[in-house]
Amino acid sequence: MGIHEDARQGKLVGDTITRYLRDVPGILNQLDPSTGRSPLASAAVAGHADSVEQLLKRGAKPDALSRDGENTLLLTVRDGIRNRSRIVQLLLIQMPKDAIDATTSANDNKTPLMYAVLRSDLQTIRLLATAGASLTATDSEGRTAKDIAPNKLVQLALDPKLEKEARAVQTANVGSILNTILAWEINAGETPSNIEFLDNLDQYIQDSPYERFFKDDPTYIQELAKNATELQRDTSTPLGQPDLLPKTILVTLHQQVIYCGTSSMKREGRWQSQAELAKKIAAITTRVLPARDGVALRFINQEAPNSERLSASEFARAMDGMSWQYRGDTAIGTYLRSKILEPLVYRPLQQSTLARPLLISIITDGMPSQEKADAFVEAIKECGDKLTQAGYPRASVKFVLSQIGNGKAAAAFLQAVGEDKDIYDVIFVTTDRFDDKFATFKANEWDLDRWLIETLYAPIKRYAEVKGAGPGVCYPVCTATNQTTGAAA
């Protein structure tokens, strides 16, 4: 296989390195004929932190140049797939000071710090800034790292001392974190940029689906804020990145319910795809979740025992404990009402115990059967009506509907649901087959996390956009001569 392929696959550890060094003493700094990179650079870019650590200890040089004149630090920050901040930390321990800003004209003179800024990789930015990376170095267009910083968070990370002071001010008022998130959501994704907006936040959030649930629960928000801060420092996932963290938190503010199909999932590996997708959704939506909460699991044609508030590991075990069984037809709307809406929404409404808004992820590979054709849409409309009658925003329960498999009838059903003007503001129907997209991203956990959180965030964004549009908003079913308009209740 060779040392360079072993480096890319993370196999350069322990005795494997010893065998290579025994046969060729200087092999750790030899360049790959195909890529022009050293084993250390190949392992670093592939994200194998253990291999990087052991290679450095065995004599690999962090400042050695590739065939194109790039050192391992530059390659890692520019091209690294995962574990970037950990690998950068390892490299900086042995990296000569004069090599920290090394770059090439082919990179438009962008330094490792500049690439970290462009990726909004806050932890890597902090490591490089603390190690003495230049804040005044310029790229080929004369721009410094601060000049290309996309937002305030990145600018603060460039100055660890200033960032520490800012964080102290922020944590002094935990409630402001939620306020900022709410403002970000209500502005349809535009991050609040001025103090006046935050000072007058009440007028913006008084109709928010979140205000009623969390305004008087500082303990919940405090724990969520603590977990969000930890996620922000986790470089193994993009969920803590500046563009995704608010979305991750907004998704997490909802009680997650995953509603799975069963009877027709035997074909084409659909059952396994559904199980893996459901487990991944549970894993990412519990990252900032306070310990008292969890994910609910439901099946259209089966019962899932003890499945109300599952942690990610409990959810995975529950999914692994289920198996495909033919249990009759797909009454997706009927069971949505009886298995989810009645116990998790209507009963708590009657008892004044509805603690959180809900986000229901529905995975299906077939169209409804053994029920009225419009039963599913009617169930969602009824849910909105009951919420507003109880004094809650109808968007307190939102839905994501996704297809697994290539059934044409299922695709037609999903399209019709997605175009229904009466539920448009509380449901998002994915346009791609869920299993196809999952297969595309499965090999890259980073992109998979990003895709899933963007998908789960879609109905939240839609509600914000419809609400912000006000009277006159035009839904997809509008035609040039017959426009259906309206705003969210």
TrEMBL record:
Q: What UniProt keywords are attached to this protein's entry? A: ANK repeat
Q: Known Pfam families for this protein?
A: Ank (PF00023)
- Tagged with keyword DNA-binding: no
List, alphabetically, the PROSITE patterns matched: ANK_REP_REGION, ANK_REPEAT
Q: Which InterPro entries match?
A: Ankyrin_rpt (IPR002110), Ankyrin_rpt-contain_sf (IPR036770)
| Repeat region (ANK), residues | 35-67, 108-140
Signal peptide stretch: none
Q: Return the PANTHER family for the record.
A: ANKYRIN REPEAT PROTEIN (AFU_ORTHOLOGUE AFUA_7G06200), SLR1338 PROTEIN
Q: Please give the name of this protein.
A: Ankyrin repeat protein
